[in-house]
Amino acid sequence: MFMFLLAILPIIFLVVALMVLKLPGHKACPLALLITILEALFIWKQGGMDVVTGTIEGFVMAIWPICLVIIAAVFTYNLVVYTKNIEVIKNMLASVSTDKRILVLIIAWGFGAFMEGMAGFGTAVAIPAGILMGLGFDPLFAAMVCLVANTTPVAFGSIGVPEITAASIAGLNSGEIALHTIIQTSIMSVLVPFMVVYMTGLSKGKKGLEAFKGIWLITLMAGLSFTVAQYITAKFISSELPSILGSVVCMAVIILLTKMFKINNPDFNIKTEKVISSVNLKQAFIAWSPFIFVLLFLVFTSSLVPVIHKPLAAVKSSIIIYSGKGAAPYTFAWLSTPGVQIIVAAFIGGLVQKCPVKDIIAILFKTIKQMSKTVITIMSVIATAKVMGYCGMIQVIADFIVNITGSFYPFVAPFLGSVGTFVTGSATSSTVLFTKLQCTAAVVLNMSPTWLVASNVVGSTAGKIISPQSIAVATAAAGIVGKESEILTGVIKYYIIFILIYGLVTYFGVGIF
Predict the structure, then answer these.
(1) Is the pTM of this model over 0.90?
(2) Which SS3 state, helix, strand or coil, does residue 332 take?
(3) What is the share, in percent, of the chain residues with pLDDT greater than 70?
(4) Contacts with 239 (C-beta within 8 Å, 6 or more apart), sequence order
C-alpha cells in the first residue's frame, strides 16, 4: 500500500496542482517531473544515468512527433485566420445552420472524430477548437467541448493505431478487439453528442432539457449513426477505419437532418452579422485549401496508400536514448509523421490563399513562440511518464489495482487504461503500458483476454479528457494558456461519467462476450 501511494504521488500532485492550487500546466508539470525523478532515484533506486536518459527520451518523444503535430495544427488555423479566410469558412458553416448546437455537433463531434481518425496527436482538439472560435464561440468553451467530444473516436485514432497496437502486444485478433471496443464504447458514443449539446446549452444559460429543444432526434442520430457506421466498418471493411468512416456518415446525417427540419432557434444563433453574404465554389476551395491539403496529404501518405507510405516511412533514423534495461531504439520518422504532412500541406494552402512566403514563415515562427509554454508542459508530461514506466512506478500502480479488486477487476480495468492516458497523454502509450497486464489478469480471473484488452483501449479514450497533455493542446489552440485548472475543473465530471459507464459495461459484459 505504501509503495502504491508513493508510485501514484506524481499523479496526485498533478491533480492537486491543477485543480486546487490552480497552477498553470507549464509550472505544475515540471514540478511533477521533479517529484518523479527524485522518487526514481531515492525510492526506486534507479541509476542516475538511466533517470537522465529516460527523461531525455521523454523530451525527444514530446518534441517529435507530438509537439510537431500540435504546432502544425495550430499553424494551419493561424494561417487561415491571418488570410481572413476564416470568415468564408464561417459563412459556409452558417449556411448549414446558424444554431450553435448543430455547429458543435458537426465541428467538435463529427469533424473532430474525422481528424482523430486521420491524424490524432491533438489535431482533433486543436483544429476544431480553432474553427469554433472563428465562429465566435468562447475560447474556454471551445477548448472544453472539443476535449469531451474527442473521446470515443480516440480508440481508432491515427488510422487505428491504439487498437492495432493492443492486438499486436496481446497476440490477439485485431478485428475482434475492434468489435469489442465499439461495443464497449457504444453507450458513450451515443451520449457524447448529448453531452456537447448540453455544454452548449449551459454556455448560453440554458439548464437541463432546454438545450435539446428542437434537436433531440438530430442529437440522437449524431451518436447512433457514428456507432453503427463504426461497427459495420470494423465488421466488414477494416479495423483501422471505424472513426474515419463513422465520422463521415455522422456529419452527413447531421447535415441532412438539419436541412430537413430547418432548425432555427434564436437563443442559439451565432452572430450572423459577422458572416459574409455568399460563397462560390472558388472561394470555398481557397478558404478550405489548407485543411483540404492536410486531409489529402494525411490520406495519401498513410498506410492506406502503401505505394506512397512505404518510401516515406523508410526515411527514418533510429537511436538508443535510454541507457537502462529493456531499452529500445527511438525512431524518428522524418517524412511520414503527421506533423510534417500538416506543415507542408498548410504551406501549400497558404500559397493558394495568396499569402506571401515570408508571411507564412513568420506565422509559423509566431505559432512556435505561441506554443512555447505548451511545449514545456508536454515535454514534462511525457518525460514523467517515461521515468515512471522505466523505474517501475506504473507497474506498481497496476499490480496494486489488480490485486486489491479481485473478481471486481473488470469494473476498474477501463480506469487503469485511463490512468495510462492521463500520465502519457496517449491512448497508444496506455495500451503499450497495460495490455500485457490486462491479458494476465484475464487469464488469472478466467475471463476473456479480448474483452479486457479492449476495455483498456476504451478506458484510454476517457483519460484523454483530463490528460494534462490534451488540456495543454486545448489551451494552446484556444489561446488561453494558463487556464488549465479551469478546464480540468470543468471537464472532470464528464470523465467520471465515462469511467463509471465503461466500468459497468466491462463488468457486466465480461460473461457475455
Answers:
(1) no
(2) strand
(3) 97
(4) 156, 160, 163, 164, 174, 175, 177, 178
| 62 in Cβ contact with 381 (< 8 Å) | yes
Cα–Cα distance for residue pair 338/346, rounded to 1 Å:
12
Burial of 504 (0-12, 13-18, 19+ CB in 10 A): middle
As given in the structure block, the three cell numbers for residue 177 are 478487439
Distance CA 216, CA 138 (A): 24
Question: Locate cell 517524412: which residue?
Answer: 335
Query: Are the C-beta atoms of residues 303 and 252 closer than 8 Å to each other?
Result: no
Nearest to 105 by CA among 182, 194, 186, 185: 194
By the 8 A CB rule, do 23 and 371 touch? Answer: no
CA 149 to chain centre: 9
**Which H/E stretch holds residue 318?**
strand 316-319
141-155, 471-485, 499-513: which range is least confident on average?
471-485
Burial of 357 (0-12, 13-18, 19+ CB in 10 A): exposed
Residue showing cell 439548464: 207
| pLDDT 10s digits, 126-164 | 888 888 888 888 899 999 999 999 999 998 887 777 887
At residue 269, the 3 state secondary structure works out as strand
